[in-house]
Amino acid sequence: MSDQKQTDLIHYTDSGALYGKPGLDLLLVETLHCRAVIAKQGAQLLEFRASNREPLLWLSPKALFEPGKSVRGGIPLCLPWFGDNRVDPTRPKHGLVRAKTWELAGVKELPRGEIELVFTYCHGGNALFSTAFLCEVTMILGRELDLQLRLENRGDESAEFSWAWHTYYAVDDVREVEVRGLENCEFLDKTRGLRRFTQEGVLTFPGEVDRVFENAPAQQQIATRAPIESHSENCHSVIAWNPGAELAATLADVGEHYREYVCVEHGNAFANSWQLAPGEMASAALRLAR
Ligand SMILES: O=P(O)(O)OC[C@H]1O[C@H](O)[C@H](O)[C@@H](O)[C@@H]1O
Question: Pfam families under this entry (predicted)?
């Protein structure tokens, strides 16, 4: 692919130019198939919309674009731990990589016109997470969205990694959304001290919902106007979250907008966390379509 083509399809821009809030470097991808915006911080997809389709992702109108802080919306990647750190809860929630600047290691136009972007982040090992690791995220931006994760333990001891693609889907009203594909599955309820329950029927969001499904099925459907299909490979945990009105009012970058999204996150957390030996590599994938 020529450099010219590369610059035609990908624009290097920033959050000041796109959202009127300077702070983060962004990539804007516009092709016949789709439009996407990605922050180099966290390799975080902020927007994705297939041509003539509804936007897949929600980006908060109150989002902040501050270096070192995850942006509210799109698909932040939580890694190397999901949620509170189990050893030391004072460590940042959801791990480290969502607030770090990643390297754009590859850009390719595929034969059918999809754009493939490869981002890498290398952690050297520090007081927050002692094991060194290499993380690679590949995004294939076409009519559908394909995400792939490769994670390698580069340390000299075995370590536990828990992680999730923390996807914020755009919906008309979360109170009318149904998530299908989790019926009869057990979940840990984060709003009730992580006690275990069984999901009776489809999952709905009448108020605050924060549920961790371990050993979850590979496919879900978010039933709303213009339904969303998710298909994962080697992602055994699904986390469903919406804060509801009361909790949202305490989140400066959500507030009254909580009805506009639902999070259905895919990864490997809690009982599904990855234990990787030195030099061991693991991978997973997620395909999303609307
Ligand atoms: O506000 P954040 O750190 O991005 O976390 C947002 C949410 O992420 C996950 O869905 C967790 O299960 C929730 O407990 C958490 O509130």
Answer: Aldose_epim
> Which atom in ligand 1 lies closest to the alpha carbon of residue 76?
4
Q: Angle 103-107-113 (CA atoms, 0-180°, nearest 5)?
A: 150
Output the ligand 1 site: residues, CB below 6 A.
70, 83, 93-94, 166, 190, 210, 239, 241, 263, 265
Measured between alpha carbons, how far is 4 from 1 in angstroms, rounded to an integer? 8
Q: Which residue has the tokens 């030099």?
A: 279
* Residues 142, 14: Cα–Cα separation, whole Å: 22
pLDDT digits (tens, 9 = 90+) for 80-113: 999 999 999 999 999 999 999 999 999 999 999 9
Mutating to test ligand 1, I would choose from 93, 188, 265 the residue with most ligand atoms within 8 A of its C-beta, which is 93
pLDDT tens readout for residues 197-219: 999 999 999 999 999 999 999 99
Residue 38 CA to ligand 1 center (angstroms) comes to 20
238 within 8 A of 213, measured Cβ to Cβ: yes
Question: Which domains does the chain possess?
Answer: 3-289 (2.70.98.10)
**Biggest alpha carbon–alpha carbon distance for the chain:** 55
